[in-house]
Amino acid sequence: MNLANRITMARIFLVPIIMFFLLVNLNVEPITFQDFSITYNEIVATLIFIIAASTDGLDGYIARKNKTVTNLGKLLDPLADKLLVAAVLISLVEMNRLDAVIAVIIISREFAITGLRQIALLEGKVLAASTWGKWKTAVQITMIIALLLNNFPFALIDLRFDLIITWIAAIITVYSGIDYFVKNKDLIPISQ
Fold first, then answer.
1. Is the pTM of this model over 0.85?
2. Angle between the 3-23 and 71-94 helix axes, to the nearest 10 degrees?
C-alpha cells in the first residue's frame, strides 16, 4: 500500500462523507443572497468533492513519478473515479438538480468503458485515457460543481450555466464513449 494507493483509498472513503452532506438535512439556516440560497451542507460537500476529484490526477502522477504503479492501483483508481462520480450524480438526482436520464447516460458510459478496458486487459493491452476522455472528465467535474453549488454564482445573473454545462457534459460523454469503442473495435469479438 504505497502513497498513490493511499490517496486513491482516501478518495473512496470521501464518497460516503460527500453523500452524507448532500442527503442529510442538518437543520442549519442556509446562506441567502437576493433570491438565491445555498446550504452549508452543499458548500461542505462541494469542497470535499473538489478535494476528492483533485486527487485523481495526483495519485497517478505520484505512482508514475515514484515508479510505484501497482495492479492494485490500476484496479482501485478507475473504481474510485466511478464511485465518486456515480454517487454524486445519484445524489444530485435525489436532490432534483439533475435529470435521471443524464445521470444514467453518464454512468452507463462509465460502465461501458470500464468493460472495454477489462477486455483490453485480458488481451494484455492498456487503454490510456484519450483526449476526449480527459475533456469528458473536466466537463463532468465542472458540471457536478455547478450543480452542487446550485448554479452559484451564475444564478445571481440569471445565467443557466448549470443547464448548459450539463448538456455539454452529456454530449461529450456520449461522444468520448463512442470514440473509445471506434478506436478499439478490434477488442470487441464479433460472432459470425
1. yes
2. 10
